[in-house]
Amino acid sequence: MKKQIVNLMRTGVLSCLLLILSGFYEVNAQQTITGTVSDESSIPIAGANVLVQGTTTGTVTDFDGNFSIKASSSDVLLVSYLGYVTQNVTIGNQTSLNIILVEDAAQLDEVVVIGYGTAKRSELTESVSQVSAKSFEQQPVVRVEQALQGRSAGVTVARANGSPGAGAKIRIRGVNSITGNNSPLVVLDGFIGGDLRTLNPADIESFQVLKDASATAIYGSRGANGVILVTTKTGKGKPKLSFDTFLSVSELARTYDNRVDAVQFARDNPNFYDNAYIADLIANPVADRESELFRTAFARNHQLSISGGSDNVNYFVSGNYLNQDGIMVANNYERFSLRANVETKINDKLKIGVRTFFNREIDSNNPDATKRIFGGPVVRTLTFDPSFRMFNEDGSYNFEKPLTGNTDATYFVTNLLRSSNVRRANRFNANFNLNYEIVPNLTYTLIAGASITNQTTESLRFESPDDVDNTLARDDQGSVNSNEFSTYQISNILNWNKTFNEKHNIDLTGVYEFTKNENRTNRLFRRSIPTYLRNITDIGRFEVGPGEEQPESIDGDPRVDRRFLEIGAGYGQSAIVSFLARAKYTYNESLSLSASYRRDETTAFLPDNRVGNFMSFSAGYSFKKMAFIENSDVLDNLRLRASWGETGNQNAPRSAFEDTFTVRKIVTPDGTIEIPKQTRRGNPDLTWETTEQANIGLDISFLKSRINLTIDAYEKKTRDLIVTTLVDQNVPDNVITENIGDVKNTGIDVVFDADIIRSDDFTWNTVLAYSFLKNEVVRISDRIDSGFVVGNFRDVGFRQQLNVIKEGEPLGAFWGTKYLGVDANGQAIIDPSGVQVIGNGLPAHTWGLNNTFNYKNWDFNLFVQGSHDFQVYNQVEAALAGGEPNFRSFLKTDKEQVQNSGLNSSRYVEDGDFIRVSNLSIGYTFNNLKGIDFVKVYGSGQNLFLITDYSGYDPEISSSQSNGQANNADVSAGIDAGAIPNPRTFTFGAKIGF
Amino acid sequence: MFKIRNKIKNIKYWYVIALAALCFVGCVDIDEISDLTDVSVQGGTAESPFTVKLLNDFTLLVYSDYWPMLFLNGYNVPGWGGDDITTSAGGSKEEFRQFDIRELVAANPRTEKYWRDTNVILASAGRAVVFAEGFLSTVPDSDKDVDSIVRTNELLGELLFLRSVSFHQTLRIFGKAALTVTQETPATELSGPEEVYTQIEQDLLTAIENLPDIQEGVQGAQRPNKGSARALLARVYMDWAGFPLKDSSKYALAAEQARLVIENKAAHGFDLMPHFADLWREANRFNEESCFLFAFDKASGQDNRKYGQAGFPAGPPFNGWDETFAEIRFFEDFPEGPRKEGTFRTEIDWENLQTQASPVYAKVAGPEGDLAFGAFSTERSDFWIRYADVLLMYAEASARSGQITPLSWESLNQVRRRAADLPFNTPDASVDITSGDLAQLAVTERKWELAGEWLRWFDLVRLELVAEALATPARTPQSSTNSDGELLPLHNPATGDLSNANYFSKIPPAILDENPGFVDE
Q1: pLDDT tens sequence across B488-521
Q2: I need a labelling partner for A940 at 20 to 30 A (CA). Which of A587, A770, B307, B498 fits?
Q3: What backbone phi and psi angles, to 5 degrees, belong to B160?
Q4: What's the CA gap between A124 and A210, in Å, rounded?
Q5: pLDDT in tens, A778-829
Q6: In 3D, which of A204, A195, A234 has the Cα closest to residue A433?
């Protein structure tokens, strides 16, 4: 099969190249009348159609918008161009025409990309929200996810942490899977399975977010979490060259206040520190822990793109370079990307296009790559002895052990600076598409795509003191991990679309699609690193020499075996074969009906359970043809929509089907031997999670679409939830993965878009996106008497679990003890009813308000976001104030020293409500400069203000835990275990258009 | 121009057809791709066909399930309640301090972890027991060879022994236990001491019957033999005879089991080590004195972290964990001699330690120069029952059951002679005792002999001596002063209830929440 695909790709690329080359032929006609076509800002339009009305004589404009055509004085020329209002020009006695086309905004917005096709917005029956480049291109966006944030109702975007290479968590209409992935499916120019992080925002034409089941059901077993369709840019008209560059400065936006300082700490601990030590602290102050972990970080971004096109060929080529320092010391992210999109129209029937994308990421010292079992970087740094000096007087690192807390730990920042973790990823995407009109109304589309990613992570981690300490050397380790992921996809799409009697439109789509994924991994791990390996560049010497076979001895002490080497390799593959069909019927642009069916056969399940059938139905009715709207000056349109459908989630753990064993090392009289121990009971009956969603929607537009309002209400029920639980609830031993449990998401999405002021000199556009969401676990395994499953996110002391999956509560509610106060002995008073639900990290209300003002050449943007009605489990505060043996605690001056409160206490649950000024920017555009179309200079600030009662860095941050177990971030939302916060960033940039 | 166009027109059909054809031919056999059957490690399950090898594997897995419970202080945390052990008075050792000051908190993470680890052990042992019994009871004898039957019975005995270790420790911590004997029928309610003792007695009597006199090639009873099971049963009877059931008829049974161990010590390979101080050296982690021990192996990550740094104070030069200290008064009262030197790190100027002036146990921190400096990861064994303990149990039990024999006095005296670093088999009038309240003498001897081994607390409990041993001024330092001449204070004075109502830990609330049938009244 692979060979076939390779052959196909080869043939496809070849034929495509040929066709592109053959597409550059010239069009000539006899010259009698000449003219120029340009847009309202006098920019010539290349590729505009000029046709003599009632004839087949026509031409297109050249790169400078010029055309010449043979016509008589009585003829009328029809001048058209996609996205502009078609003009009729009577020739009369003119021989030279100057035609100005007016942009047809309504027409541009009308076409919406939906799965495997397009639809007119006015006829949509599905809930689809669109984010076009216009809404974010004025802002210095370096990550595609940022562009989505707060601009689409029902879509939440949360950064895993504030470091530049960190992953973002995007959720559409809540979360519905405990075990599986809740990330939406990303479809990049028709290719399923894109990675938003790697995309260059400047390449994006638009996003379409498919939210309801009638839109997502077309993606069947991968559609349950919603779908984001990404369309990249194609060029048009005269060649445009644009250059965009900016520089940004980031800093820690908020600090942890009221911490015990070095002097105070020493005074509080007279057992450890004498007066001389305190006097020295006063004379030579110790740097604050926070200032050692964080820094002011710079980033630069350069973007260059060239685009253009004629009637037959469109192209868009762009290159981007981003170099961004993290506010955590040693953290840096670098990205290079290059995109080339070319489309050619061979003739009226055949169009061919190729989109290629290359990307390279170098992600250095991502905070998530550090050991986080006992909290993230923030916890580990801030809980270190405040009087500790990081450097000795001679400038070398101080490896003296702290006197209290975890006395074996070395200082996190020291470890960070001498360790290295670098991930390099190279991605190549190629996407070939062909569109052929077989007979009128019947079109065949082929999409053949491939995506290949090679990734290598090199790591040297030093955590032991540099002095010779045999037993601690095991904390130093090095590793090299290499992965290759490849995906191939072939989609064959047949579409038949016809309008009968000008009122009945039928649109039928049939698809056959095949996707295959492969991944390969290699891993080399070495515990205890010999002294000659100290820099990441020494990784080339990462080998076991012939002389190293014997256990290394240290200081002649042969009992200590410091060496430990592991190697591993892995291979996996998966595939999905799908058929799907969709029928749409529209009557008189008023009534729309749609039905779809998809059949997926996937290797994610065993043969008996691997076929899934997914159906959806939807209907819409627009009142725009009715008299009360047609005769109204105010109301433009009123539409009602309703839909129902089913989608699946195939994210079953691959090991879930078989009994699984791990090798246990057992000390026996015959020495230490290895015996496999069962850790998982296989479940061959495991099958899809199925999400059933009903949606009703309302679209209203007023005043020639100056004001638009869309409201959707939905209920999403997921059944056969895949849950991994213990076989025996009391025994943390064997697990089993089963289809047990139901989750329900109920919500409302509202988008309000208005051009409040629209005059020649001044415009003000405002877009409000608001979502309400209620998430509830409706049912959990009958096998589990207690009705709940405790999650696996543990407190920063790595003891108690902090999250729970419990009937009647939101997914991943906070789990802990209820703190009632403190008694006379300084002991915590805890609600005797025991561990219970003490909060919830999923916001009920989220909103984003984007305001754009233009005054003459000035533009101004203000983007404000908010989330309300949720809590944050502040594990940083718990570690600082909570009395945990693994840290130096009681480090807060504003918190009473309470014994036994535990880290899993409601004492550390805080309201997370916040309002954030996400972006504030001001720009000025210089037009009509010599040889340059425009120059725009701007300055902006991101994350400038945060209004919240939360005492930590950022209530929007959720931490993940690295504990060697599969962790689903969606069942631990709102837990702040010391993630690096979103920084405050100031950006200065310029955009130049040629 | 037009010619080219026509050519393209012709070519294009070819491409379209060829491409489309290729795509449709690309139809896949999905079963060929699925690799769900690839499993990296294969192993046996309770449903696998019976083999003695597999039963042996299951038995060894129970040991590996013990490791998470044993490698850190936790299963032994009640031991801080004894008058022999204390912990850091300030700082973060509250999980231990709760026991030291008798302010027990139900949600103590150490006891909760113990409970969860125990469930894994019981499930693992339960599965293996069912596996063994299935073979013995359902396979017709004609289909079994004699060796298999003998070996299966031995392994069954070993499993019942391991399960008893767990049930007994649970009872010692909580005063009750969840008697889960098979995973198919997990305990839905908690059992009181009578029921638990009866189960342990039954299991250990079977184990005694099934286990061999000695496990071939096994050093230091790393896997139990008949004598190990008898020693454990003797300990169980001692507890049974004391608080809370106080069934004094069990003293005779304890004496009997202990006597059988002593009389058959050669067959079991048990005896005292000649020099007390040698017991705590890492190199002697396997020795004849342990009637049963849990072993550790640093190279494979199965290390023991209860020793070394855990026994040192936090301040320089040791930078220890501040976890396990000796009590000052206990140290003061400790009879001088080689045993005291072997028990404590007397060369350390502990009275002037920076963080907390408490004596350091050599038994915990390791004898001087034995463990590497700064070591917390060790290979020290956990001696579950030492032969010295068996000797003293016999002395005490025979006295309490009115069956004092010359062996009773000899048992006490062997321990005393070795404490003085004298040949323990040779009577020596300088240390031997042959008259007096033998039971009381044995209890006192246990206090010194077993100091710092987390066992003293359980003696205080079964004999209801807690109030006497812990109430002020029993623990108050009398003579230890620092370099400024100040009398050292008592660290962690007991502020909680010292009555027998406060001997046992509460069941952790999380465990009660997860088990609706459990009631901790």
Answers
A1: 999 999 999 999 999 999 999 888 887 888 888 7
A2: A770
A3: -65, -35
A4: 11
A5: 988 777 777 788 877 888 777 778 888 888 999 889 999 899 988 887 778 8
A6: A234
Neighbours of A493 (CB within 10 A): 20
- Cα–Cα distance, A82 to A310 (Å, whole number): 12
ipTM over 0.90: no
Task: Quote the tokens at residue A770.
Answer: 């608001």
**Which residues 26-85 of chain A have a CB within 8 Å of chain B?**
26, 28
DSSP character string of A909-942: EEE--EEEEEEEEEEEEEEEETTEEEEEEEEEEE
Residues of chain B with Cβ-Cβ distance to A28 below 8 Å are 1
This prediction has a pTM of 0.77
Q: How far apart are CA A379 and CA A258, in angstroms?
A: 15
Name the DSSP letter for residue A271: T
Residue whose tokens read 């950022």:
A954
Contact flag B372-A436 (C-beta cutoff 8 Å)? no
Q: Minimal CA–CA distance to A492: which of A230, A229, A190, A111?
A: A190
Task: Tell me how crowded residue B474 is: count the other CB atoms within 10 A of its CB.
Answer: 16
Query: Which chain B residue is nearest to residue A273, measuring alpha carbons?
Result: B354
- Best probe of the A interface among B2, B4, B27, B36, by most A CBs < 10 A, is B36
Distance, CA of A631 to CA of A637 (rounded, Å): 11
Pairing of strands A635-649, A564-587: unpaired
Instruction: Give, to the nearest 10 degrees, the angle between helix B387-400 and helix B226-241.
Output: 40
Cβ–Cβ < 8 Å for A928, A877: no
B509 vs A contacts (CB less than 8 Å): 817, 832, 834-835
User: A593, A590, A586: which is closest to A623 by C-alpha?
Assistant: A590
Q: How far apart are CA B152 and CA B54, in angstroms?
A: 10
pLDDT per residue as tens digits for the range A869-893: 999 999 888 888 876 655 666 788 8
Instruction: Tell me the mean pLDDT in the region A565-574.
Output: 80
Buried b (16+ CB within 10 A) or exposed e, A178-213: bbbbbbbbbbbbbbbbbbbbbbbbbbbbbbbbbbbb
SS3 state of residue A556: coil
pLDDT of A553 over the 60 cut: no
Angle, helix B146-174 to helix B226-241, in steps of 10 degrees: 30
Which residues lie below 8 Å from residue A205, measured CB to CB, with a gap of 6+? A132, A133, A231, A232, A233, A234
Contacts A–B by Cβ distance under 8 A: 265
Measured in angstroms, the CA of B411 and the nearest CA of chain A are apart by 29
Check: CB of residue B286 under 8 Å from CB of residue B436: no
List pLDDT tens digits, range A463-517.
776 544 444 445 677 888 999 999 988 888 899 988 888 889 899 999 998 888 8
Rounded average pLDDT per 10-residue block, chain B, 521 residues: 46 56 54 57 82 94 94 95 91 86 89 92 92 87 82 96 97 94 82 96 97 88 96 98 96 98 96 96 94 90 90 81 94 97 95 89 95 84 97 98 96 97 96 96 98 97 96 93 93 93 92 84 75
Residues of A in contact with B43 (CB under 8 A): 659, 661, 675-678
Three state DSSP letters for A716-753: EEEECCEEEEECCCCCCCCEEEEECCEEEEEEEEEEEE
For residue A220, report the phi and psi dihedrals to the nearest 5 degrees: 50, -115
Token pair 């995506």 in the structure block, residue:
A451
* Euclidean distance between CA atoms B406 and B410, whole angstroms: 6
Find out whether A44 and A62 touch, Cβ atoms under 8 Å. Answer: no
- Cis check: omega of the bond before B473, within 30 degrees of 0: yes
Q: How far apart are the first and last CA of chain B?
A: 99
* Residue linked to tokens 């509460």: B506
Report yes or no: A422 and A362 within 8 Å, Cβ to Cβ.
Answer: yes
